[in-house]
Amino acid sequence: MMATSLGLFFTVLWSSAAIATKFGLQAAPPLWLATMRFLIAGGLLFLYVYVIRRQSRWPRRREWGQLGLLGLLNTTVYLGATFWALHAVSAGLFNLFVTINPFVVAILASLVLKRPIVRREWIGMLVAGTGLLVATGPAVAHGSATLPGIAVLVVGMLSMAMGSVYFTTVRWELPSIAIHTWQISIGGILLVPITYLMERHAGPLTVGPALIGSLAWLVLVISIGTMLLWFFLLRQDVMRANNWLFLTPVFGYGLAAVFLHERITTGDLVATIFVMTGLWLSGNITGPTRR
């Protein structure tokens, strides 16, 4: 029951990131917004972990490479790509695409971690995947996204899946909060030159409620709170954690309708039913099942 509650709570918070980003994009170019988020969040985490609490040691030589790769995959590529994609993709469709992640993780985990994918999980993924197709086609046809936006978003999803599996292959000795501090800080630093090259001629920042509110939510709630919960879920079971992302469209469409006034279509509702059914069939609501 506790695992299910945490999974649902994570999914609601994760879905809200696209909404907050959309508000921020009204006042800043996408990569500049992403870079500010990561550097601010990394700085606050560093201050808390190493200055205020002094509860963790600095990484050892071999750990710098591990943290750098994790930051590159989970922050620079994944989050950088999703910020860029959100200026060309609706928040609802963005959250729909998050569900690509469990499929990729399932394949990578079976290859790298030798974790078998049981029949019930395959059936659940197939049913949920059918729901995704029901909603994706009309969304693209009606102009809710551009092809470059979708391509960049897919790259981001692939990078997140790789980061999730890589995280479980390393025998981490640092606490989760220290790992996240370094991955988001390193990822943000790596994104600085990319941001400068791609957006040095972009429009100016507009400092106001949209930018400040967006950054506050993305930094405090998403980059710090939600990502620490994500690491906790990954430590329990990498497949089960990623399967919670199947629920992202359910909450994502609802939040987008309320805060961004995006229209919810019949196809979206049908897709939601398929996704919920797939999640239930795969055993994620009642708990992990192996047979």
Automatic annotation (TrEMBL):
The keyword Transmembrane applies. Keywords: Membrane, Transmembrane, Transmembrane helix. GO terms for cellular component: membrane. The chain crosses the membrane at residues 30-52, 64-86, 92-113, 122-141, 147-167, 179-198, 210-232, 244-261, 267-287. InterPro entries: AA-Vitamin_Transporters (IPR050638), EamA_dom (IPR000620), EmrE-like (IPR037185). Residues 5-135, 148-282 form the EamA domain. It is found in: Membrane. It holds the Pfam family EamA. The keyword Transport does not apply. It is a multi-pass membrane protein. Belongs to the EamA transporter family. This is DMT family transporter. It comes from Sulfobacillus harzensis.
